[in-house]
Amino acid sequence: MKYSKRLSRYLLPTVKEDPKEAEIPSHRLMIRAGMIRKLASGIYEFLPLGWRVVKKVENIIREEMDGIGGQEMIMSAVQPKSLWDETGSGRWYLYGPELIRFTDRNDREFCLGPTHEEVITHIVASNVKSYKELPLLLYQFQMKYRDEIRPRFGIMRAREFYMKDAYSFDRTVEDCRKSYEDNFKAYERIFRRCGLDFVSVEADTGNIGGQSSHEFMVIADTGEEEIAVCRCGYGANTEMAEFRTDDRADGDRQEAVRELEEVHTPGVTTVEEVAGFLKETPKKFIKTLLFRTDDGRHIAAFIRGDHELSEHALKKAASANAIEFIDDDTIKKKLKSSPGFSGPVGLSSSGAAIELYMDSAAAGIVNGISGADRKDYHLRNINVRRDMKADFREGNFRKARQGDLCPKCGGALVFKRGIEVGHTFLLGTKYSESMKAVFVNDQGSEENMIMGCYGIGVTRVVAAAIEQSHDGNGIIWPAPISPFDVLLVQIARDADEFCAELFGKLSEEYEVLWDDRALTPGVKFKDAQLIGIPVQIVIGKKYKETGEVEIQYRKTGEKEFVRPEHISEKLKKRSG
Ligand SMILES: [Zn+2]
């Protein structure tokens, strides 16, 4: 007997009206479908139907984690500050007000865990000593806490959320890369098995730190992040996206090179203003952006007028952790230029100490326009390879755009929106070093363990699945994570016995929810659409005349009449 329920005895408080505070479909539909209820801002209760979907996702994750050698455990949500101090990572402070802190009766400080690197490293450091005990992959499912400044979107950006977090401990970097790869592949299987359209993208490591990192994004119009994807499987968030330089994009190569010329452009500074003044297109412009790096160097980036700078690419090329705009005073005194009128020709000939980064597209401009490094003047007919008097570095320093060529296969990049549901980090020795998670190797000497960590927002997966798959009437569950396989909609009032028998029979193979409530057909059909169970079997008046029941498929809206004994065969054919 599968997990089956009669709706008359099941807590499923559906709601007709859209809740006012709900801004996105998953929030709206989870409340309306009786899956969740709000207790306080960003804090939700999961009612039976909602928790069932969470458990479906959890079970898929558990199977895949166990499949790669994971061992499930559970750590406390409460963590002592002393443990965080031990890492010397400064994360207690880095987390700022997002960390929910409290003190006990003895004035000892604690927090509610937003993540568990410190705790797990402590456990492994104190219990694992020898290379023979490695590798280890430990994981848990648990509520995590983050005091969001503005909780919103229901469980998507909540202060309490259910997560799977896993941690790997290896002897060598190569072994750790293998663990990372195993987890990465398990994630791909997990999201595929959940029936989700997703992509994995390279990501910044943020305040967890580490050497390599990927985000798993569910594709949905309501996603908070913009990502560039290609059919070959390449994916990156748009700030980080790489692309191949497309020479065909430079349409003006045929133009004859002309003499450099200075023009008076009083009071106009922006690309649009100067373009209007000189009656030229922004594609002729070389935008000049001046930055100071965190280690005090001055750098200039040159980008074509219709392009946007990729700070990520520039920082990478300049080996800078951070960059900020240079103040006007420094531009005048140190760079001998004029704020708003800087350009590649002047900056490369002034002798000022500045590194020059020229985007390939800007370098390809024939007879370009840029600032003349003195107030109210621009230069036209700039050809950078002819006119710049100092070495410059050429590369892709602009942001990728829709239609740019994929760095892997040369296909066209498409921009989509995504919801982050999973994140993998190759941590290296960031925690093991400071928390002394060491082991004795086969030569008898001590080494740091090499770590990785891997998270999935389980409750977020549920919301993301709804964002990706719903319509005006309600949720359309992917079959593998649907709360039930089959919804039995009893319309005929005198069919109790018939339904009970069918319910019993179907429950041998399927998880069945039987809507046996004494409500009007209209209400029942509306609820059926709203809660989105993939297969609905309607027992209407016809069953007495012809002995047939109607199967309705939530996703396609198709309907067909079948004899009850053929239901199972029909459903198998369809899913197989
Ligand atoms: Zn590609």
Please state the structural category: alpha+beta
Share in helix: 25-40%
Strand fraction equals 25-35%
Termini separation comes to: 22 Å
Report the radius of gyration as a whole number of Å.
30 Å
Q: What would the CATH topology of the largest domain be? A: BirA Bifunctional Protein, domain 2
Assembly state of the chains shown = single chain
- Average pLDDT score: 93
Envelope shape: globular
- H/I helix tally: 18
Tell me the CATH superfamily of the largest domain: Bira Bifunctional Protein, Domain 2
Top CATH class of the largest domain: Alpha Beta
Largest sheet: 9 strands, mixed
Q: What ligands are attached or bound here?
A: zinc ion
Q: What's the architecture of the largest domain, going by CATH?
A: 2-Layer Sandwich
Report the count of strand segments.
32
How many separate domains?
3
Low-confidence stretches: none
